[in-house]
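pinging the channel bc i need a second pair of eyes. not urgent but kinda urgent?? the chain im working w is below, pasted from the shared doc
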Amino acid sequence: MTPGRRRVLVLVAAVLGAGITLRAGFWQLDRAAQKNALQAALDSRRLLPPLVLPQLATSAEAAAAQHYRPVALDGRWLDAHTVYLDNRQMNGRQGFYVVTPLLLADGSVVVVQRGWEPRDFVERSRVTPPREAGPSNAVVHVVGHIAPPPARLFDFGGTTAGVIRQNIDLAAFAAEIHHRLRPLSIVQEDGPSTPADGLQRQWPHPAADVQRNYGYAFQWFAMATLIIGLYVWFQIIRPRRSH
């Protein structure tokens, strides 16, 4: 390989390396901005009055406009259809999100992310149903905020049925339980009317780990700077100093 061709290849490699790492750094900054914007929207919408049943969205478009709004609903738990979403973390611990459909007075159903419970690492298939404060078919008052359906995780096994599953698809779940589901979910929060059911509700904030994105961005930018610096030193400065 001629010296001229070698220099061209080194230049191309340096440009590609710097370009890829810079792009990765800006992507991390963009992710941080998205999380901050989402947190700001959540904080501002939380100040609005709680939505009640007649105001609850029935379409995906209307539901998107209601995300993170407070909500207060009365209904009956469909306990037989409770599912446990696996590999969910709270306060750095592995466990399940407990999701139960709530039958509303108008006959529609909304899925409620009731809380989190830890995994039993001795018997991994064991789950603990939430403790009920009264009869199983009693009317309950649920307070919380409106959210998109539970976030989807990558499912290696493709498990879409059973008590323990990785994800929940609202359309498929509606067909499974034979009820009309609203296109949203409710994230239940602790309040004066929330029973002591054994579940934890320290839900993560969207921008809780934004410093991690800034840290990753710094690392990518530092790598880009290193690539550029090495190229300038070995391909420009050092050859000139050797003459």
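so The two ends are 22 Å apart (CA to CA). and The CA atoms of residues 51 and 71 lie 4 Å apart. — does that match what u expected or am i reading it wrong
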